[in-house]
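Before a colleague's protein record goes any further, I have to sign it off. My question to you is simply how this chain folds and whether the tokens agree. I do not need a full report, just your reasoning and any doubts. This is what I was given:
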Amino acid sequence: MPASQHINPKEDIEIAREFSMRPIKEIAAKLDIEEQDLLPHGHHKAKVSLDYIESLKSRPNGKLILVAGISPTRAGEGKTTTTVGLGDALSRIGKKASICLREPSLGPCFGIKGGAAGGGYAQVVPMEDINLHFTGDFHAISAAHNLLSAMLDNHIYWGNELGIDARRITWRRVVDMNDRALREITNSLGGVINGFPRIDGFDITVASEVMAIFCLARDLDDLQERLGNIIVGYNREQKPVFARDLNAQGAMTALLKDAIQPNMVQTLEGTPAFVHGGPFANIAHGCNSVLATSTALKLSDYVVTEAGFGADLGAEKFFNIKMRKAGLTPDAAVVVGTIRALKMHGGCSLDELKYEHLKALDQGFENIARHVSNVKKFGVPVVVAINRFSADTDAEIELLQEKCAEIGVQAIMCDHWAMGGEGTEELAHEVVAMIDRQPTEFRYLYDNATPLWDKVKTVATELYGADDIIADQKVRDQFAKLQEDFGELPVCIAKTPMSFSTDPDLRGAPTGHVVPIREVRLSAGAGFVVVICGNIMTMPGLPRVPTAEKIFVNKAGHIEGLF
């Protein structure tokens, strides 16, 4: 394998094809899962049966390791590759390990981001399957969501017994694709036979509340109850109308019955990987399913998982929402960054990143320093992983490690992109040692009893470096109304991932800013209140030149252009 990152010109998909995948039953056997407890999807993918998962409840949990990142830049951070590399490294040093990731959405795959199965020699496979359709989970989630949409409009068409106010319908439709033309639509056009025309729209599937519910549900009963708690709109007395009022939750659960069983695949080095669920890290909590994580913890001594976007969004929601809802406790955290990205936070342009720039690195360090400080506020031991690029100089590496030492955290260079698990062994040894010497003192950032407004203000001031939060009177009234019946719920703040502030161009670790709240939405089924700050899209659009233009199937029947 190459000695440093981005030397090898091979595409991720070429590297993936170099490796011979093992039958999935052999991968499952590493976690002592018998073949009869798998539901195979071909030779290299399988679901783990719910009956088997139920049988594991009395087992103790292994150690849970969160991989989070710095504020994203165009320079790249490598959170998923680090998760994969660390899982492989733990296996290499003799630990019984597994990893837990989200499933990729088709929208980003065909848009600007590409796939989400790792990269280089730190990948999960089969890469093409995972990025395209996989086991059909997202299609099932889209179907369940849109079934509720259809039943809602059908109820109105056949007399509207519930007195639903068509002006106050909050439930939209979804499709797992970036399609800006569907953001706002008018449905039921074409005359009386097609229903009552109203304004509607589509979100991308990963922004669906069904997706969030899917990833927080502990079993089928919990799933069905949460689906019934979805609020689809309000009646003429402005009282909420729930999915259970439409008797939709049973059929929705039936569509999700198979999908909710966690998917198992493998890394290039044969480490078991649970890839299941994929909620947005803005509108939702940005983590893989609770079922996958809790199952992995029963079967492994060490479980490595990741949270979406930077730690200000992903890790915060992992701790305050997922851990709270799942009743789990994290044992360690890894904050991933690159010297390239930190130089961007320090003022470098993309073109300047290939040159040594110690001043920019020094200035940009404040971003990773705040993320480390934020993780420590949750009482979780933390280490910094530097995802190495070939242009990183010895002086830059030395400066970064010195700066990390000054704030009491170890920075370890990792070369998993180029060397797989071998390039992350030092990190694996440190994570294991850190867990042994420094037991977690995990705590939430706020209590359930804290008022919703104060929960948002706590996150903004404690983690974002803001002075305050602001909102107009209409939004404040929404907070007051939600506080009456849903005040105990955690908050899920939707803002740009590119900055601690709501301005995506404000890099580094800004202070003194104010967080403006534009809208508040209740996800009663998922069990959190979504607080929208700034310009957040729930249906992305394609870029001028989408990745889809480069993807094709060659004469051998292999997919090309996917990354």
About this structure: The chain has three domains: 12-135+259-437, 137-256, 452-533. The mean pLDDT is 94. The radius of gyration is 23 Å.
